[in-house]
Structures are given as structure tokens and as C-alpha cells.
Amino acid sequence: MKLSVQKCLLTGFVLFACVTQNALAEKPKYAADVPSSLITPDSLQTDYLGELEFFDGMPNDLTVQKAYDFLDTYRAVESFLSGMPAASIYALLEGHRGIGMQPNDIGITENLMDARSLWLTPQTTTPYVHAEIDVKNGPVVIENPGAVLGFIDDAFFLYVTDIGLAGPDQGKPFKYLLVGPDYTGETPQGYHVVRTNTYRHWFIVRLFVADGDVAGTVDAFKKSIRIYPLAQADNPPEQRFFNLSGRQYNTIHASDKTFYDELNAVIQYEPANAFNPELVGLFASIGIKKGKPFAPDKRMQKILTEGAAIATTVARSIMYRPRSESVYFYPGERRWYSPLAGGSSEFLDNGERVLADRVFFHYYATGITPAMAKPKVGTGSVYAMAADDAKGRYLDGGKTYSVTLPGPVPAQNFWSFMVYSGQTRSILETDQKAGGVDSNNPNIKANDDGSFTVWFGPEAPAGKEGNWVQTKPNTSYSCLLRLYSPLAPWFDKTWKPGDFELTN
């Protein structure tokens, strides 16, 4: 009897449960036609995060943690890639401060440059002039002497103005007035006023050397260039100069998690509205906030370490193994390429920002100006990069290669080859000071047909010493071909430089 009662009760409970379940499963009176694409299943399998679990769309604790770790890592990577221009200009200016230079001081490579100074892809053929211009405390005057070629970039490595032949002065003596975002005072007559969104800037010009007289060129320039605050225009202070040649110092931003400290320093110093709000919001998402200490906890330290490692790998992959044919000058025919092959200093293509090109450029080089990205025939300069040989193998400093430039080389002024470390992107460290060769060298020899063959390797082939660029065993490197004042055959691509051909 007792057992029968229990069976009846159990049967009744099951029947009640089934009725209740059926009632709940019935479509509500007010029901939407929900597409399956809106529904997150209770379990998802992903490649990066593994299994993700949910209760009717609500992630469990482990899934939430995975999601936030991924999001913070992604934002750390994107902050590195998008913040690289700011960190690069910061490292450049701080590198000069590390050797004693202050804003408005002028540094000149009076005896040219060599591998002892760490710079992103510099050249050693002409003297360069560098200065930091800081307008936080008021406008700054630049008395330009005339026939130079240069520009000013701001704290986010954005173009501000050209200086010299490509600028409004057109190579004549001229007074610029750089005015910052906070300045509300009057601007006096007699200046070309340039307004900017940031406080710190990089001023750079290249000097033109006549008849190989580097010392005379530098001396003449030093007698005419002046940079000083507008507030001292009636009695400018004595101009301070620094010879940058032969100095051991670094101007390259970090590739590890200390990169984020450099980025934070920029955000703390510059005006709050100097940069795009979306970008500033990205930096804030990983703890870099204006007016707040940057103090990542143990978890974020690990994430920033991971983010920097991934971002560096991405940058190096884009730079040394570009997957877009748009960066190649001769797709399918030659290996030479450039992030500026599209001709835009803003990395724009039909209204679209080409993000990979921007990453490529700022990880590999410094300085941006429309005059460099899209020069006119017979003016400016062009840059072609090679990181591998004709068969697509990375250049190896222990091997010997030859590169032939068909004659005549379309450079009205001169052409040059420079080699750069695969690690630092600065001049490859060898016993050859120049780190390359150029057509101004009296020892370089043309072939009988007017072409030039240049050799790259640890030792010069017999009789080819003047046409040789020294490399170093157990190192990788890239090479930049520069044409100064390029001519029409470069632009219409009827002239094509040869690839790196392995000879041993």
C-alpha cells in the first residue's frame, strides 16, 4: 500500500513537471522572430580562447576572465602599433636630451653620421641638422638660412610644415613662427606663422654640400640659423650648437613593455586635446590617462609584456614580409618596396587609412613630409627598400650579393645604398664608417655600359673595393636605395634597379 502511494505521488510529480515544462516552452504571447545569428550558444569553441561557456547568453566567470584578458591584450597591441609615432618622436627628442641638448639647441652631424649613433635608417652622405622646438611656454622663432631641405613634425610625428626648398621660403632666408595650441597673444608682422596642436616638435634639415666641402657648408649654416623664443626676439640668446657625429646615443623607441612608459610620457606632457579622442581612449583603456599615474598591476604588467611582444612581431612581419602588393614598386618583377610607394605621407588610399603602411613606416623610419612621399621630377628624393634577395630569402650578412643599377641612373643629384641592422633598423655595425656607398664617391666605378654594380658582403671582391658595402656575418640587414632629385624614368618605371643576386 505504501509503495503504491509513493508511485502515485511520483507519477503525479512527473506529470506536473511535464505539464509545467510544456507550458513554459510554449511561445509567449508577445514573441519575436529571433534570427539564429543573434543567439550565443551555451558553449563556443575558439582558436584563441578555447572553450567559452554561457548560461543563456551570460558568460560564466572563467569565460569573462578570458574575454577581458584577450581584450586588454588586444588593446595593448593596438596601443603599441597606433602609438608608435608618438613614442618614436619622444625617443628621438629624449635621445638628444640625453647628450645635453635642450629645446632650441641645434645638433649637426658635422662629420657625418656612423653606426655609433642609433637612429632609424639614417644616411651618412650629407650633414643633417636636428632641433627640438617646444612651444609650451610660447611661440618660437626659426630663422631659416635658405637653401636647405627639411621639415617640422609634431609630437605625434604628423607633418607640420616644410622648411627650405620645399617650404614657403623656397630656399630663401625666412622667419618662421611656430605657435602652439594654448597661445592667445598677438602674432607680430614679418613672420610666416605656423600653428600646431602639440607642444614638442622635431626640426630637421639636410644641408647641400658643394664640391665636397662639408666643413665650409656647416660653418656657413651655423652663421645664419637661429632658433629662439618669440619673447626674446628683441635680444635673442646666443645659439648653442652640438656636433652629433661620433656620439653614442639612442633615438629609437623601445620594443618591450617599457614602450608604454614612453607613450605615457607623451600623453602626460602634451595637451589633453592634442590627439584623436578615439586614440586617447585606446591608451586610457590600458591605464595611460592624462593626469593619472601609470601604475599597471601584476596582471597588467604581464599583459603589457605580451602586448609588446605581439606588436613587435606584427610590426616586423609587416616591415620585412609585407603581404600587400601595393608597397612594391615592381610587383612580380623586383623585390624593392616602400610604405610610401602609394605616394601619401598620410598613408591614405581613396579615403582609407592604410594601417599596415603606417606601422611599417614608423617602425622603420623617421620624419614624414609630403615632399618625401610624393616628390616631383627633379626634386626631393625617393626611397626603395630591400630585405631579401631575388629568390625571396632574407639578406644574410655572411654572404656576398651583387646589385646592378642600369645606366644611366635616374638621379639628377646623386644616388646611394645604405644597409641597416635587421634588429635596430639603424646603420649596420661594421668597420666601414659610411655604412654604404654613393655616387659622389670618387672611388666608385661604372661598368662599360654605364651601369653600376655594387657588392654587399663581409669582404670586398678583388678589385671592387670602391663598389663594396661591408656586411657582418651572423647578422640580418635591409638596404635602402636612395635617388636624390629623381628623374622621369624612375616615375614612369622604365628604369628598374636589379635585385640582390647571391654570388656565393
Summarize the structure.
The protein has nine helices and 25 strands. The protein is of the alpha+beta class and 504 residues long. A six-stranded mixed beta sheet has the order 9-8-12-6-4-14.
What does this structure look like?
With 504 residues, this protein is an alpha+beta fold. The protein folds into 3 domains: 16-59, no CATH class; 100-246, Domain of unknown function DUF1254 (Immunoglobulin-like); 325-502, Domain of unknown function DUF1214, C-terminal domain (Jelly Rolls), CATH 2.60.120. The chain has helices spanning 2-25, 61-97, 214-224, 259-269, 277-284, 298-320, 355-364, 370-373, 488-491, and strands spanning 43-46, 50-55, 58-59, 106-108, 117-118, 128-134, 140-144, 148-154, 159-164, 174-179, 192-195, 200-207, 226-229, 241-243, 249-250, 348-349, 352-353, 381-386, 401-405, 415-421, 436-438, 452-457, 468-470, 477-484, 501-502. It has a 6-stranded mixed β-sheet with strand order 9-8-12-6-4-14.
Topology:
Elements: H1 2-25, E1 43-46, E2 50-55, E3 58-59, H2 61-97, E4 106-108, E5 117-118, E6 128-134, E7 140-144, E8 148-154, E9 159-164, E10 174-179, E11 192-195, E12 200-207, H3 214-224, E13 226-229, E14 241-243, E15 249-250, H4 259-269, H5 277-284, H6 298-320, E16 348-349, E17 352-353, H7 355-364, H8 370-373, E18 381-386, E19 401-405, E20 415-421, E21 436-438, E22 452-457, E23 468-470, E24 477-484, H9 488-491, E25 501-502
Parallel strand pairs: 4-14, 5-15, 10-11, 22-23
Antiparallel strand pairs: 1-2, 2-3, 4-6, 6-12, 7-10, 7-13, 8-9, 8-12, 16-17, 18-24, 19-22, 19-25, 20-21, 20-24
